[in-house]
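Anyone able to model this chain together with P-hydroxybenzoic acid?
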Amino acid sequence: MLNQSELNLTPSPFSAARRQVIQAGGLIASSLAAPAIWAAKAPIKVGVMLPASGTYAPLGQAIRRGLELALMGSGNKWGGRPVDWVFVDDESKPAQAAEKAARLLTRDRVDLLIGSVHSGVALAMAKLARDRNKVLLVPNAGANALTRESCAPQIFRTSFSNWQTIVPIGKLMRDRGIKRAAFLTWKYTAGLEYSEGFREGFERHGGEVVLDLSLPFPSLEFTPLLTQIAAAQPDAVCCFFSGSGAAKFLIDYAQAGLKAKIPLYVTGHVTEGILHTLPGAEAQGVVSVLHYADGLPHAEDKQFRSAFETTFGQPPDVFAVQGYDTGLVLSKALSTTQGDTQTDGLMKAMEGLEIASPRGRWKMSKAHNPIQDIYIREVQGQRNVFKGIAAKALADPATGCSLA
Ligand code: PHB
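re: yes, here you go
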């Protein structure tokens, strides 16, 4: 019986032997030989960094549930091996991220990494994954650099780039007659990229950004900024916030009396996973763009939603979909490698993958980021109702990525 460290360190006499069985004996021999060998396989150790506290905690929980559901859907095994999760709360604190991820590799001896929600945390994890030649799957963080100048063979994203989930809103707002807009966000990698992306999309279609405001992450002191917006009287406000901070923003926007006066257009992150926490009609009618929506026509979505609700007693959101898709990517790749987690084989197996996702079919780009549809949605009740397509098969430009 192999122990865990042998399995981690060697390209494995074990899997080589099994491959020989398959090659020599063909299909019949392999299917006869496989079960006994697979049963003997040690668990794959997966290190997962997600926020379990702070404003992004609901996102971390949804991603975790999505991952777990995907694993259940493949009989609790990937590539014939059970999975041991090692979950770490990264608290959305970039300063501690490299150390926490290094501990997962060195102390916990995980085979591969998943993480995280916050762009700063994911950037630190990505550097480590590159330096230590370990596979990293990013189930949320949108930092553009991961698909651009800091892209790497080991880094695969299953969510979106920040650019993808903001640029299409510019045309939508212009089509609805909005000329002057204010933008509002948290001042950190993601927020700043959302601000840049908003300007790019809105100005390209002739709009003018009259105010560009930010506050430190994860501050909830929105009131002074809302006062500035009221004074500037833009035609509309656009913003990026997420998690429980986004819920607080929606409440404050309504309480400041702005909801009735200045329409709110948002990246869909703002209204995902938090609608049930709002006391009243604060989010009703808010329009957004995102790579997921409630009421998509795909069969995969119907199945996924029903399985998620049955398992967790709550409807899924985009973050759950991203966790689930991360599981689908791993499931496919590990079945190609027959459970072997060696970095080279795993990377090769993830190249160009196509995923039949609840969000719709998407393809892993050369820069390792989904090429996907971006939807228009509108809040009705507790749902982000699907209203149309804002951008079809949108790929991040991947500027400066050596893989693309
Ligand atoms: C990010 O930090 O990249 C981020 C966080 C939360 C979101 C989207 C992006 O909902």
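The pocket of P-hydroxybenzoic acid is lined by residues 117-119, 140-143, 162, 190, 242, 269 (CB under 6 Å).
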